[in-house]
Amino acid sequence: MALALEQGVAEAIRQHGADTYPNECCGALIGREGRVTATYALPNTTEEGPRRRFLVRPDDYREAEKQARHAGGDLLGFYHSHPDHPARPSQYDLDHAWPFFSYIIVSVRTGAPEDMTSWRLREDRSAFDQEDLTDA
Amino acid sequence: MPNTIHIPTPLRPFTDKKESVDVSGGTVGEMLVDLTTRYQGLKKHLYTDEGKLRNFVNVYLNDEDIRYLQREQTPVKPGDSLSIVPSVAGGAGSVLPKPKAKAEVAGVIWQ
Asked: What is the pTM for the complete model shown?
């Protein structure tokens, strides 16, 4: 399993993570057939503390699907940042994940983006499997 | 006239890539049961093990959130449509430590 990122995508995610630090950022991954061509930044609307949580509301989700359609692609997944935490999914990530989506996590340490990883939920919801991130 | 359920992107692989599915039922809950009977792979992503709709699964009856109606008991009329719309949530709150041995990752593969 691999997710290919076109030029500028990884930079956009890292920059968003740095911009919102110490809060989590979130956004949509748009592209086609395992190739991310664009990101769509979304507001983090969580009411549980944005340093440790993110939430994309249904209206914003619908807007992301619309943006993907307008771009002639599909919604491939979502990204978010883990401020001062590793780029590994949490139990909370697992509990709230959707199948077939790619979930990119970027770790942001004291404001500087570091590791970036991508994950997919197993069909039985038991775990995430890591997928390779490559340059498209 | 059949009732339709609109399917979001991550669930379409379970519905033969259909964006909407025609179902029958007199209530929102019956429509959802018909959907998950036709496409059984959807069930664990829509419902908890206790049979309740997951809290990040939002269901709209003609654009109205069923939480503000009668939830799954909400009656439907012929031609009404449902939309399943995800909330997407997560966060670093409880990142699990790296397991020490491969055996420990069985079932949950946190790195």
From this structure: 0.90
Q: Number of folded domains in chain B? A: 1
Q: Which of B16, B47, B58, B95 has the highest number of chain A CBs within 10 A, making it the mutation to test binding with A? A: B95
Give the domain CATH number at B69: 3.10.20.30
SS3 A68: helix
Nearest-CB residue to B13 (from A55, A62, A100): A100
DSSP state of B74: -
**Segment A84-94, tens digit of pLDDT:** 999 999 999 99
Closest CA to A61 of A99, A29, A33: A29
Measured between CB atoms, which of A54, A62, A129 is closest to B85?
A62
- The β-bridge relationship of strands B88-90 and B81-86 is unpaired
A90 with B93: Cβ contact below 8 A: yes
| ipTM of the modeled complex | 0.92
- Taking only the tens place, the pLDDT of each residue in A2-34 is 999 999 999 999 999 999 999 999 999 999 999
Number of domains in chain A: 1
